[in-house]
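Example 9 (inverse folding). The structure is encoded as follows.
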């Protein structure tokens, strides 16, 4: 009976040691799980902040693109008006050459002024068109970035 008692005590001690080892492992795993949860929450917050930043940039780029489009439209209208003026000056120039009364110098000056205005408008139109193209490229870059964020998010969800 004493031997059996000693054997049972030995088994109980072994089971207690095993139980304590398992409890330590469980506490360690719980700590690791909590650390992973905290890390994932931080990553989710960082990702959300990045998405908000990208959305703000997208809105800003959209505003810039609309502004550039409006500017391009305005410059096209101004260009058309200057073309009409140029044609009028050319007609006046032709009339002066055919002998009608007006000073050739004034006509030449008007034509030069119209030409300078036309060149300025054309330069501005080119600049606005370049800005519009640049804005479109930036919007494409933002769209690509949003797609990659979606892929990262999907990969994170599949990884869990």
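The amino acid assigned to each position is listed next.
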């Amino acid at each position: 009976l004493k031997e059996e008692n000693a054997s049972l005590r030995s088994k109980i001690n072994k089971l207690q040691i095993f139980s304590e080892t398992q409890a330590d492992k469980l506490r360690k795993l719980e700590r690791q799980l909590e650390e992973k949860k905290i890390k994932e929450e931080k990553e989710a917050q960082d990702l959300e902040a990045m998405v908000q930043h990208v959305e703000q940039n997208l809105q800003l780029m959209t505003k810039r693109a609309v502004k550039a489009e409006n500017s391009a439209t305005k410059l096209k209208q101004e260009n058309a008006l200057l073309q009409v003026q140029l044609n009028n000056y050319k007609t006046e120039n032709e009339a002066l050459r055919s002998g009608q009364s007006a000073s050739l110098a004034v006509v030449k000056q008007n034509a030069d002024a119209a030409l300078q205005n036309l060149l300025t408008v054309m330069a501005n139109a080119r600049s606005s068109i370049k800005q519009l193209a640049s804005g479109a490229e930036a919007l494409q870059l933002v769209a690509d970035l949003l797609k990659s964020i979606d892929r990262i998010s999907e990969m994170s969800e599949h990884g869990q």
